[in-house]
Structure formats: structure tokens, C-alpha cells
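Lab channel / #folding
Pinned by the channel admin:
"Please post every new chain as: sequence first, then the C-alpha cells as a reply. Keep commentary short and put observations after the output so the thread stays searchable."

First post following the new format, from NK:
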Amino acid sequence: MRQRVVLLTRQTAKQTFVARYGSEGQTKFAMAQSVRGRSDFAKAEVEDTAQSRAVARIRKAMPSDMKLAEIDRGMVAQFLFEPHDLVVAVGQDGLVANAGKYLDGQPIVGVNPDPETIDGALLAFTVDTFVASLSEVLNDRRPVREATLAQAQTTDGQVLRGLNDIFVGVVTHQSARYRIRFGQAEEVQSSSGLVVSTGTGSTGWLKSLRGAEAQFDPAAEELHFVVREAWPGRGFGATIVEGRVTPSEPLQIESRMEGTIFADGIEADAVRFDAGVSVTIAPAERRVRLVV
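Reply from TO:
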């Protein structure tokens, strides 16, 4: 049996509003001043109630001797996960993606607190089905689906992983400038940045760039990259614009900009990618283990 359950949630929109205005009463008053504000607060209350009820039911269903740790998404990067933990993420897909890249073999369960409003590809369970399957989950008797992580490692010692994708570029409207090396080819490029996607993420950003044919198996030990709007101007090439990245054929980029690298759309977790620094991107050795 698993030795500890780590129950993971994120701050709801209602909690964010209340933190901004100071109290629930002040929040209601401030947001009631506009039709949109009233609508936003009503939706936030529904979301908050659904998450609170889901967490309460999961807590109640836990065996009395099971250790339980509850953390917010903002604590994931600093939290010390233990080898025999089971991570239960209650929320949207992004919560599973955010936690999964920090795990090293621990299984993770995605629980959808409100299937009527949340459509989560990584959320294999509703609250009802999770509670009904709890004994099987805690005793590792449920199937596990593995998913490949993308990993970016820079020459100045930074490592970043993503379950969906990794972006390399700049966050302003300026062009990204860098030298790209892939296979036997290399060139200096000016573009709107690069997206390197896993199979899990191929239904998202990659699909929007290349269409439905871009989708591939989340378990495949490969990544696909796309260069956004490469500009074939003087001194810049635009021939290396997409490719399949494997452990034996990684993607290498040398920065010629004040750049950034972030994963899964979370700019707050970005690492700097300044001129002179190089990054190697390939499938990570560790994989995310999704309980289904």
C-alpha cells in the first residue's frame, strides 16, 4: 500500500478574488458593480464549491491510518515528494501537468471535481469513481499509463521539464535570435520562438501550429518541434523549421538574445536563456505515471 497521499489543489478564482479585496463581503460588493463582475463571481463560487466538496469527500474516504499531506500548486516545486507517495491532483489538466514534471516515479491521479464544467484529458477519475476505486489505487492495482516528459538542460546548469511542451524564445514582441542545431544541420534564425511538444501536448499548442496530423502517442519516446514564423532575412536561415527529437538526436539551441525557456505555459517557472548559453532538449529519462 502507498505510504502517503499528497492531495494537490490550486487556489480557486474565488479565493483569488477574496485575497484581492480582503473579505468575501467586500468581494461580492466590488464585483456586483458590473454585470460581468457578478457573472465572474457566480462562476467562481460554483468552482470553489465543487473543489471544496471534492476535497472533503476524498479526505473522508481515506483510511484512518493513511498519512495525508495537502499542498497548493504553488508549493509543488519546493515540496519533498517521497518514493512511496501517491499524488492526487484535484482540478484541471494543468494541475496534473504542473505536478507530473516534479515527480520521479510516483504515480499521479487526476480527479475532475466538476465534469460539467471541466473537460480534462488527464483527469481519469471523477470524485465518485476515485472514491469507489480508492482501495485499488492505494494498493497499486489500477492500470498506469506512462507519458514522456520533455527536458531542457542548459550549459549553465539549469534543468526544466514539461509534460506538454517547452517554449524557447522571448516573452516580449521582439524576435528570438539563436543558432539551432539539429541532426547534421545548423543555422542562425530569427523567429517568434520554438515550441517543442510531447505526445501529451500534441493536442494543444502543437496542434494549433500544425493541425490535427501533428498528434502522436503520449508514451512515444520522442518530441516534435516547430519554429514559429522563421524569417529568412539577411544572415538568417529558415530551413530547420520542424523535426522529430529523440534521445539520440536532440535539439540544440545557442542563445543570441535575452531569452527565456518555460514549460507547459507557466511563465512564472521560466529559466533565463541569455546570449552565450546553449540548451539541449530531448525526451527526459524519467516519465510521468498516470493512474487510469
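NK: The chain has a mean pLDDT of 93.
TO: also worth noting, The chain has two domains: 4-142, 148-285.
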